[in-house]
Fold this protein.
Amino acid sequence: MPRTPISTQDAPAAIGPYSQAVRAGDTVYFSGQIPLDPATGEIVEGDISAQARRAFDNLKAVAEAAGGSMADIVRVGLYVTDLGEFAQVNAVMADYFDAPYPARSTIEVPALPKGARFEVDAVMVLV
């Protein structure tokens, strides 16, 4: 099955040997999105809610570049450096998804790239 890389200038460019997302058949696999402003390449200022919002905006931009939307996402992985901030992340996520919600895992990690406090990855199915 051919793999098609997905790329958009509306989300941060890959900073390593990976694609923003890859489509294989009807499935799109997203790389992790951290709260980088695509215009500056810097982490957005603010609390965990601001960081989560920027990361979800980046995810949305890549989803749209792949020909889909947030409604087509079937699974998300959330990575936080402090599970004590999970309620704020959960509230932001609710602004981006409607029922039926995607499957989700949430993992506390000791550190994320560029000092981010939040990262999200996803899987999307286009039909």
User: Anything to note?
Assistant: The chain has a mean pLDDT of 97. The longest strand covers residues 73-80. The two ends are 16 Å apart (CA to CA).
